[in-house]
Predict the structure of Glycerol-3-phosphate dehydrogenase [NAD(+)].
Amino acid sequence: VVVLGGGSFGTAMAAHVANRKAEMEVSMLVRDPHVCQSINQNHLNCKYFPNHKLPENLIATTDAKYALQGADFCLHAVPVQSENACSMSSYSAVHMWPNRPLFFNLLQFTAAFLESIVDYVDPGLPFISLSKGLELNTLRMMSQIIPQALKNPRQPFVALSGPSFASELMSKLPTALVVASRDKKLANQVQQLLASERLRINTSSDVTGVEIAGALKNVLAIAAGIVEGMDLGNNSMAALVAQGCSEIRWLAKKMGAKSATLTGLSGTGDIMLTCFVKLSRNRTVGVRLGSGERLEDILSSMNQVAEGVATAGAVIALAQKYKVKMPVLTAVARIIDNELTPQAAVLELMNLPQ
Ligand SMILES: NC(=O)c1ccc[n+]([C@@H]2O[C@H](COP(=O)([O-])OP(=O)(O)OC[C@H]3O[C@@H](n4cnc5c(N)ncnc54)[C@H](O)[C@@H]3O)[C@@H](O)[C@H]2O)c1
Ligand SMILES: O=P(O)(O)OC[C@H](O)CO
């Protein structure tokens, strides 16, 4: 098994797979040589999990050719957009305020990463995407990005999603996730690969539902964090999250998602986790925005990605494209773009027609 990306979730899933069977060979493709060395020499990821011992059948490399050679499964754990994508750079900013500076030259996409490894990818290698986000300038989901970047429309694809903090997986706490693929047999194989007494795996054929819910819950978690940071109380929090769930459902259904997906693990399950639990990075961004911090300062102080920041920009464009009213999720994008303060957003939402 090869895992692309040596961040928190890639490391947690790699450790999970390696822990399942001692004879399983798991390799992680990482960028940082220090992280690589710490995994191979000390069985630790010095940057993300310095206190968790990793299994010895998990090795790291910075060499894509070596990592991908002979792999039967590939777990993709590189963010859809890297941290650089976040500051003041949303699709909405470019399309609605054309005079604002373009920051696209700062963006680094998963697509660019995949194009750099395409020569080493077997066309039959199943890609299991762990990433939760939408590509800002194209609105594509990972199920579109991966085959297009690899120039192989038939690259086998599975989306894995659901409520799962990497740190809790690393601590071997019980977790339940869903794998979605249009290929039922492949979804069952991935279920076999990942399921254990600590990790339940459901299967689904609703790739769109699983992917869109996983991406949008990050934007809603930022909104929930803002409400928390502004100290608006529990009534507001419940009303906001309920409204956000409706907005996700309206859009996702127009995009072809099934209702059962949206009320399941990768929808309601992940929304509850991310909106209500302090461990969420997206929620933390929101709490700090709501307490008056500047986005640039928040992002520069973080060493992990909060995918919702970039995905928020894609939501404005999707709401326009599918003609769905999404006042809460689009307000997050406007706060991120500095077009609206959190206080003005609350006034605006409370003054919408009854
Ligand atoms: N952390 C979690 O609890 C969790 C849970 C479920 C899903 N996810 C999703 O998994 C994905 C990865 O998140 P994470 O938490 O591991 O992020 P992270 O910030 O902890 O790590 C990201 C990793 O990706 C690498 N990376 C970034 N840009 C890259 C590029 N252009 N090329 C190659 N490598 C690059 C970084 O070096 C880093 O190792 C995200 O989409 C996230 O939403 C995370
Ligand atoms: O920390 P967050 O906000 O990126 O959320 C992590 C996972 O997606 C939770 O399921």
